[in-house]
């Protein structure tokens, strides 16, 4: 008798669930767009994950964050959450995020090296010049043709931090704000770090915000190089540059990005009392 009663209850519950599913108003949850562009420089198609503010208005101008490692299964979702939170609770304006999905980050984020061990261990590396050309000559012009833009940000961690450092030192005009997290400045026997003073001396002293961060739990070389790069930046005496450095005391290479970006954004956009 009990088994029959349970069967009747189960059948009734199933019918109720089906009826509810048929009447429920189901809509996709959308936070932006996925676009694909053809790059002649890279000779491949590249996917862009684009976060748009909730009240996006195509007639308005917006800051743009270019996010390296911007695939859906990498940093796009949690970074866009930070941006939305800082717009809601801090003084950050509504901002568009362009997540650049990866195909081969080792190829795209590293410059050429003659070191045989690196060539052997990382056979596809050494083509950041092409990727920077893609950013400068294809991606940024495309985004600026689609949206009205103001300030431009570059977010990069690890090899992405190495690329962000290379762009800052060699093509500084591409972005106004650089968030360089745990940069892999060990690459090519620290050659970029060694060239930094000479490269910085050639850069015009135009307004920039530069945030460098590293985790205390990271490899000692990573920590040493990040601190050395910060020192080089400070010694460059750029009066119109705001240079910030943050040692993340409880973070390692795997955990640092989200919390470190939070700390960097606080420097730019302090808390403001709700109106």
Structural class: alpha/beta
> Low-confidence runs (pLDDT<50, min 5 residues)?
5-9
Task: Give the biggest beta sheet.
Answer: 8 strands, mixed
Distance between the termini: 64 Å
- What gross morphology would you assign? globular
CA gyration radius, whole angstroms: 23 Å
Average pLDDT confidence is 92
Question: How many extended strands?
Answer: 8
- Fraction in helix: 40-55%
Portion of residues in beta strands equals 15-25%
- Helix and strand string, N-terminal first? HEEEHEHHHEHEHEHEH
- Count of individual helical segments: 9
**For the largest beta sheet, what order do the strands appear in spatially?**
1-2-4-3-5-6-7-8
Question: Quick summary of this structure?
Answer:
The chain has 275 residues and is an alpha/beta fold. Helix content is 44%, strand content 21%.
Describe, in plain words, how this protein is organized in 3D.
It contains 9 helices and 8 strands. Helix content is 44%, strand content 21%. The chain has an 8-stranded mixed beta sheet with strand order 1-2-4-3-5-6-7-8, sandwiched between helices. Helix 2 packs parallel to helix 9 and helix 6 packs parallel to helix 7. The chain is globular and about 65 Å long. The protein is an alpha/beta fold and 275 residues long.
């Amino acid at each position: 008798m009990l088994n029959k009663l349970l069967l009747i209850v189960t059948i009734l519950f199933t019918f109720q669930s089906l009826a509810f599913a048929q009447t429920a108003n189901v809509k996709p949850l959308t936070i932006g767009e996925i676009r694909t562009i053809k790059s002649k420089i890279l000779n491949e198609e590249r996917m862009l994950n684009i976060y748009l503010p909730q009240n996006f208005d195509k007639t308005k101008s917006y800051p743009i964050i270019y996010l390296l490692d911007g695939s859906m299964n990498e940093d796009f979702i949690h970074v866009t959450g930070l941006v939305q939170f800082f717009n809601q609770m801090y003084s950050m304006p509504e901002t568009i995020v362009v997540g650049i999905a990866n195909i081969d980050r080792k190829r795209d984020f590293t410059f050429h090296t003659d070191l045989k061990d690196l060539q052997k261990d990382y056979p596809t590396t050494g083509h950041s010049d092409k990727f920077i050309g893609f950013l400068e000559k294809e991606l940024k012009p495309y985004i600026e043709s689609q949206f009205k833009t103001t300030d431009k940000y570059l977010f990069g961690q690890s090899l992405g931090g190495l690329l962000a450092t290379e762009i800052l030192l060699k093509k500084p005009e591409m972005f106004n704000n650089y968030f360089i997290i745990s940069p892999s400045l060990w690459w090519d026997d620290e050659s970029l770090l060694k060239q930094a003073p000479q490269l910085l001396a050639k850069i015009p002293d135009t307004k920039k915000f530069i945030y460098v961060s590293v985790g205390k739990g990271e490899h000692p070389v990573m920590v040493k190089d990040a601190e050395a790069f910060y020192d080089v930046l400070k010694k460059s005496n750029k009066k119109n540059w705001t240079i910030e450095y943050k040692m993340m005391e409880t973070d390692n290479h795997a955990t640092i990005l989200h919390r470190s970006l939070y700390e960097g954004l606080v420097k730019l956009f302090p808390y403001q009392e709700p109106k």
